[in-house]
Amino acid sequence: MFFRRSRARRARDAVADQVAERTDDLAAALEAAREAIARASTAAGRKGAELGKEAAVKGRKARRRGAKAARGVAEAVDPEQVAELTRRAADKLFPERAKQRRDAARKRRRRILVGGAGLLGAGMVAGWLTAPKRGADTRQALKDQAAKASEKGWERVAEPSEEAGTITLEGEQGAEVTQLHHGDGTVPRSTRTPPS
């Protein structure tokens, strides 16, 4: 029996040794895994920080490029074109508003046309009413008006004063008048033409 016990004890000790060795191996593997995980997480953190910095730099560059492109487009696009495109988009979305706007534009155009036609008609009527008679009557009326104007003009002109080139009008002080010369430098005689 003693022999059996010792064999069982030896087997138990062998199993315990094997278990202890395996436990030590597992503990060493676990420690190595922990160190590897710590190194990997540190490396991943560094890599993540680097990638974050790169992403931030690329994001800033992309924003700058986008802003520059937007400025270029804004400079290239005419505000009137943008307004027209916006109006067209609104027309598609709200056809009732588009119809109201078109009707208002038609009314404005009609008012302008009617006002222009009214002015044209008033001008034509005023022209017909104030137009002189035609033919011989017109010529005679023009001659009479010209004769009356020349008589009135000559009545207002007085004789020239002692100074050459000064003419005195009724109720006025002396006025300077420059004498006309012929092309050869001689002064014409003192004939006056009536003012028109």
What do you see in this structure?
The protein has 196 residues and is mainly alpha-helical. Among the domains are: 1-76; 79-130. The chain contains four helices and three strands; from the N terminus they run ααααβββ. A three-stranded antiparallel sheet has the order 1-2-3. Strand 2 and strand 3 (174-176) form a beta hairpin. Helix 2 packs across helix 3. The longest helix is centred in the N-terminal third of the chain and has 75 residues, at 2-76.
Q: In DSSP terms, counting alpha (H) and pi (I) runs of 4 or more, how many helices?
A: 4
Number of beta strands = 3
CA-based shape: rod-shaped
Rg estimate, integer Å: 57 Å
Sheet with the most strands: spatial strand order: 1-2-3
Structural class: mainly alpha
The level of helicity is over 70%
Low-confidence runs of at least 5 consecutive residues? 158-164
Percentage beta strand? 5-15%
Largest sheet properties = 3 strands, antiparallel
User: Which whole number gives the mean pLDDT?
Assistant: 77
SSE arrangement, N to C: HHHHEEE
Report the span from N to C terminus: 165 Å
